[in-house]
Amino acid sequence: MKFGIFHVQVALSLGLLLGCSGGDEGDGPIVPPPPAPAEYADKHMPPGWWGDAQKLEEGRKLFVGEANPDVNCASCHGKDGKPVKAGATDFRNPERMKLYSDSVWFWRISEGVPNTKMKGWKSKLSDDDRWKLVLFERSFGLSGKMWSVETNQWIDAGAK
Question: Are strands 145-148 and 153-156 parallel, antiparallel or unpaired?
Fold first, then answer.
């Protein structure tokens, strides 16, 4: 069966609508995620956490399944942020990850991502634990960065 450019464009568009990337998201176009809904839009990393090494380590333990046997983000996203399952976000890509504000990231961890295998974790993790995951996950592609509420973008952690 032959596929023309139209078929490829339709397949890519359908994949984007469904939240799929066809594997390592480095292969797909980089598009911003939708904004966080109202109940998450004003949620931000707790004060003082961006530079907290203990919280970062607690986030790592959650991410790899050491701290909570029901949660193992690394089983899809890989221990180093490189996806091991098709469709999982590649956290190592700074161009993609800088499009996710801390509130969007928290929302996606909390509620999941519709039409993907990413389920919500708010029933299994406290707010603090979900923030620890945001803290750890950003270390793959945005190490040394923090979300600035004032400028609405990622900035150098030492700049504030």
Answer: antiparallel
